[in-house]
Amino acid sequence: TAALGSTVAISIDDTTAGTAAVTYTVTGTGAAQTVNVNLSTLTDGQTVTATVTATNVGGTSTSVTDTAVLDKTAPAAVSSPTPTTTGFSAAGLEVGATVKVVADGAASTSTALATEVVPVGGSVTVTGLTGATAYDVYVIDTAGNVSAKVDITTL
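Above: the chain sequence. Below: its structure as tokens.
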């Protein structure tokens, strides 16, 4: 948190492509405020270091730093699914990603008809679907990247 009138400096560095940075002055009534940082110049797969420094109007600064791996790559789509009468099974998926089933022709942001988080091992079984029906399936990784759509028809 930062007091009204404080300056918040955000710096994100991937040590390969350089630094993406933004400086923001806290305004308004103290309600939560959003600051956007353009990460498009940073390199996918690199460890990035983010530092946020808040400096109040009196000149006192407080900083916090964290690191993470930048993930801008969509996960692999469901490949060679095995349909059943109430769903399908698939293997070789990104652990921790979510398999999302939507109505045929619907966007990945549509209401899910079924979801399943991919466990260790990368195999998943999705159930609860209606037999002999076409669906669209997306894989969404923990960073929010969305795979290509795959059409699946249950038996």
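The mean pLDDT is 86.
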